[in-house]
Write a structure and sequence with these properties.
306 residues, mainly alpha, Serine Threonine Protein Phosphatase 5, Tetratricopeptide repeat, 4 domains, TPR_rpt, 12 helices, 2 strands, two-stranded antiparallel ribbon
Amino acid sequence: WVPKAKNGPADENTETTRPIPMLRRLAQVCGVQINSEHEYDFSKASGPLKMADLLGVIPLVKTCKPNWVLPEVEQLIEHAKSNLRAANTADLQRALGLANQAYNIICQVTGAEHENAAMCAVVMASVLQSAKDLPLALRELKRALSLFEYSGQHDSLVVVQVYMALGQLHQALEEFDESITCFRRAIYLLDLMLGPDSSDTANIYHKLAIVYTQVGHYQLAKSAVTEAISRCGENKILMGYILRTFANIIAVGSNDFTEAFRYENASYNIFKQVYGPDHAQTKECRSMMETYTRKNVEKLHATDNK
């Protein structure tokens, strides 16, 4: 524990920048449960925790427990995933049958509340989504989320991935309020696990900005995409996609085609450097730059005519 310096300017060597994620990780490593409703004072030299804050103890043991309770189930899931990649109707039906068979075996051996059952449900949701049966895919993902949370993984990376998948499914079904809620929940969990300046949340903020744009909340979309840019880090490809989205938000929400061209041009330069001038993304950026130029000229002519 490194307390905040009392004298002199704040320095990254003398104060922590991620107190809540660090406290969460400390509790995990020590195997204790702490009161999440308490306002902890991180400025104390003795640390923020007291004995009264400890709610329980979780035994920490090393284990060689496999990811799947039965090798037969793991093989069925792997076969299902291989058929899923083929993506034709017959293979998708076979993949769904294999995943469902694995799920039934898990239910017979361990019961339906096991995390392996949740993993089977995620695979079935992927198959149903590939088959364009989005309502059933949504049902399977919700079941997987409930099972993961029931098994104690409510703040794990796999739950974040399920929330992201749920957000995308709700978006495809035009259930935008639910989509925003799921993306916000994923961001909250990642901030809790990795800290508020993690680059892993940039992609989720980008998706959130797209949803806000679809429903016409352009200011919220700008805020989300600005947050995505600030967290993107060194991921140039993701930055290129985020800048393209920002250009579209400005063009649609503000009719500022000059500014939209500027962001589209920045995206074009990234894709040209990473993919080359003949890549589809680079060509699409070039096409949008021409579109923004044409619309800006039309806007100026319309203003002059008035």
